[in-house]
Amino acid sequence: MRLSLTVLLVTLALCCYEANAVVCPSFAVDNAAFLWVPDLLYRARLQTYSAPREAVEAKMQVKQCVNGFSTGNKLQIWKALVKILLKCGYEDFQKLLSFVF
């Protein structure tokens, strides 16, 4: 569960930093996809960022760990993420919900 706490703290820091409290929509969608999208589709999503191969592999290794979380634990992370996004003024939740339901 330490990994999920780290992910949430980084999300909070990036989303709600005083100088810029606007949530990047791509960042929000990527976090939702990280929890719910199958590996092959998520890897294809990462390719759109033109990230180095090593970075993609590192993120996929973390995703493999998160894939082992129970659905209940993923939902707890999801709820915390939604609370953070609400606090930061994110509004396009329909796009995020498409990953979960």
From TrEMBL:
Residues 1-21 form the signal peptide. The keyword NAD does not apply. GO terms for molecular function: phospholipase A2 inhibitor activity. GO terms for cellular component: extracellular space. It is found in: Secreted. PROSITE patterns: SCGB (PS51311). Keywords: Disulfide bond, Phospholipase A2 inhibitor, Secreted, Signal. GO terms for biological process: signal transduction. Its main location: secreted. It comes from the Eukaryota. Belongs to the secretoglobin family. Lipophilin subfamily. This is Uteroglobin. It comes from Vicugna pacos.
